[in-house]
Amino acid sequence: MRNIRTRFRAYYLGTSGSSFSYFADGRFTMIEGRLTEDSRPQVEIEMERCGVDAADSLHITSWDADHCNKYELPALLNLIQPRRIECPGYNPVKDSGHGEECLEIIDEYRTRRRNTGFVPAIEHITPMFIGGLKPAAALAFNNTFYNPYHIVENANDNSTVKLFRGGCFNVLSLGDVEDAKIGARLRRCRILTSETDVMILAHHGADNGFTTKNFVRHIGPSVAICSSNFDNQYDHPRQEIRDLLHEEGIRLMTTKTGDVIIRSIDGHTGVYEAINLKAKSTEVSSVATFVSKKVHILDTNADALRQRYAARRRYPR
Fold first, then answer.
1. Of 262, 260, 257, which is closest to residue 278 (Cα–Cα)?
2. What is the spatial distance between Cα 14 and Cα 154, in angstroms, rounded to a whole number?
3. Which domains does the chain have, with CATH numbers?
4. 33: pLDDT strictly greater than 60
5. Residue 80: which of 139, 129, 19 has the closest Cα?
6. This prediction's pTM
């Protein structure tokens, strides 16, 4: 069985918004374009613990300021120096100035890096991009995109949905999606239902019709992550979502008071530990241990994986 050291971290920002990282098989990905005074020291520590001085990629799910902040993005890019940036596939809201300025900052970063002899790849995750990818069944344990399949009027539903599946446990990132139809499509994806271990709650744990009992039961994560500040105006995660997760036996951890760290243990072959820290400290608030869904297939070869998932190829890409 292959040993894959894997780490996930959800960062306490001290304000509303989302920031995560995922490290697997030597590759470090920063998720969302946020970096605050509270999170920066922890990002630096996380990169050091992962043994990297630059990120392989920066993945941004939405142009909303709580996912990609124009005032924080330059410092983040300078810190992690990503070799690849995955941008939301929809155009930022006109006249808001925020998303458009983030795109300008990303272009400026690419130009600046070009002068050093290395040009970062910039990819816009559009329906056309997703449609051009190979089916997930043919990709073994490569990361997989699931949204957007169509660009719609509601920007939240254009959020990028991605399954990070390169490590000994997998993380599903849902951005701000809120349409129940998207949830219905996702819960029919065989790879999502058979491989999701950790799920970042859609829209910070809002009770908007997306996170339903059917969705949660089909995806079946062991851990749900909510990125929200302690005194947020929307009371995320909503009590209805808390109750639903409790009823389904899913462990909820939030960044309200501190970081969440999930790391592979016991040889990095499928057992992982989830830790909720207290704010601005290394003191543990809670801890739990789980076994990944794919623990029995981590040593499966690519041909066997293709046969395993060949029956349903319609949605996952």
1. 257
2. 28
3. 6-309 (3.60.15.10)
4. yes
5. 19
6. 0.89
